[in-house]
């Protein structure tokens, strides 16, 4: 037992060293330069997500539209206010939890009072064509410490769909890739569509999820495991022993490879990678509330380019190497 604790302590310290090293040497991310090409960024891969968004705000000439759950990063707020002061039209749709603080700085901030759940999207649209979306809230912790990804693409058609709430699984073509867009909670077929994609997995399935309480997604993932698909699941350590515990226990009991992050921040991802060619990503956790009540965005991208596959291969390696496999007794009933 003492030896196991010593090994765990060494691994935890090593993980912390890696993450702190990454934080101290963040790279300068460049804005998308090729229209129609989808770019990915992750703070786990040393991309400075806060600086990326600051540069996006600085590049705005006419408008910035934001849908966000939490927004408190001071530098980002300062850069956004500077854009407004130079004449850029700034529109913000925020969750109630962030609304009152944002209203002090941006009186025009809006709140959807008809929404039964959360405004949980994380979307920025610059000048009606440059789109950013992903799992990161606009807080210092989420941008620098918590594990997140952002997707960016220069696309007038996708920007228009997001601005005018045109989801419904509509398909968009980006450099020989197809992206299906779903906007929750109005797109009732989104959950079924995602589960159908999981049911179609043939070789591998990798899931990184902050909060997972949906039994339907668990059933689909377990079914994939039982038919011989190589399944790996990474969950947030705190959520594993809290909100997501029931699902974590179920997956562990079924023999699915389960990883818990061990770094100082949250594993805040919301993505699934199917056969290394199809990506499900966006703001939605795998919960009933996300698909029935919250305002969320989900994108299904296929097929991933070689560059994108390399990005997620590296990200998954970082994610799993900095995680811990749970003890065999951790989820015993």
Write a brief caption for the model.
This protein has helices at 2-24, 49-59, 74-85, 96-105, 140-144, 156-163, 190-199, 215-226, 237-240, 245-253, 288-292, 306-321, and strands at 39-42, 63-68, 89-94, 123-126, 130-134, 149-154, 170-174, 177-184, 204-209, 230-235, 257-261, 270-274, 278-282, 296-302, 323-324. With 333 residues, the protein is of the alpha+beta class.
* CATH architecture designation of the largest domain: 2-Layer Sandwich
Work out the radius of gyration. 19 Å
Major β-sheet annotation: 9 strands, mixed
Helix content: 25-40%
> Beta-strand percentage?
15-25%
Distance between the termini: 22 Å
Poorly predicted ranges:
none
The CATH fourth-level homologous superfamily of the largest domain: Endonuclease Chain A
**Overall number of structural domains:** 2
Can you give the mean pLDDT? 92
* Approximate shape: globular
Question: Order of strands across the biggest sheet?
Answer: 7-8-14-13-12-9-10-11-15
CATH fold descriptor of the largest domain: Endonuclease, Chain A
User: Which H/E pattern describes the elements?
Assistant: HEHEHEHEEHEHEEHEHEHHEEEHEHE
Give the C-level CATH assignment of the largest domain.
Answer: Alpha Beta
SS field, number of helical segments: 12
Structural category: alpha+beta
Number of strands: 15
């Amino acid at each position: 037992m003492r030896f196991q604790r010593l090994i765990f302590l060494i691994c935890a310290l090593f993980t912390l060293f890696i993450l702190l090293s990454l934080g101290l040497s963040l790279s300068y991310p460049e804005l998308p330069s090729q229209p129609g090409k989808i770019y990915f960024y992750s703070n786990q891969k040393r991309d400075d997500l806060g600086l990326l968004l600051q540069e996006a705000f600085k590049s705005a000439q006419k408008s910035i539209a934001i849908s966000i759950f939490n927004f408190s990063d001071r530098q980002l707020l300062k850069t956004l206010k500077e854009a407004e002061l130079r004449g850029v039209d700034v529109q913000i749709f925020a969750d109630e939890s962030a609304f009152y603080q944002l209203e002090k700085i941006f009186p025009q901030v809006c709140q959807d009072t008809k929404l039964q759940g959360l405004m949980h999207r994380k979307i920025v649209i610059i000048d009606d064509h440059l789109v950013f979306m992903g799992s990161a809230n606009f807080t210092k912790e989420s941008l620098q410490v918590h594990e997140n990804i952002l997707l960016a693409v220069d696309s007038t058609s996708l920007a228009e769909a997001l601005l005018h709430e045109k989801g419904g699984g509509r398909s968009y073509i980006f450099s020989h890739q197809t992206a299906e867009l779903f906007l929750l909670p109005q797109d009732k077929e989104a959950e079924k569509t995602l589960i159908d994609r999981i049911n179609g997995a043939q070789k591998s399935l990798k899931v990184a999820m902050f909060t997972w309480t949906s039994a339907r997604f668990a059933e689909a993932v377990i079914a994939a495991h039982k038919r011989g698909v190589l399944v790996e699941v990474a969950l947030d350590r705190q959520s594993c022993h809290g909100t997501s515990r029931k699902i974590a226990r179920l997956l562990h009991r079924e023999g699915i490879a389960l990883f818990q992050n061990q770094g100082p921040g949250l594993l805040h991802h919301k993505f699934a990678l199917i056969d290394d060619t199809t990506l499900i990503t966006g703001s939605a956790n795998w919960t009933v509330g996300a698909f029935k009540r919250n305002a969320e965005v989900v994108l299904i991208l296929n097929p991933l380019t070689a560059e994108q596959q390399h990005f997620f291969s590296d990200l998954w390696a970082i994610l799993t190497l900095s995680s811990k496999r749970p003890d065999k007794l951790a989820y015993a009933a």
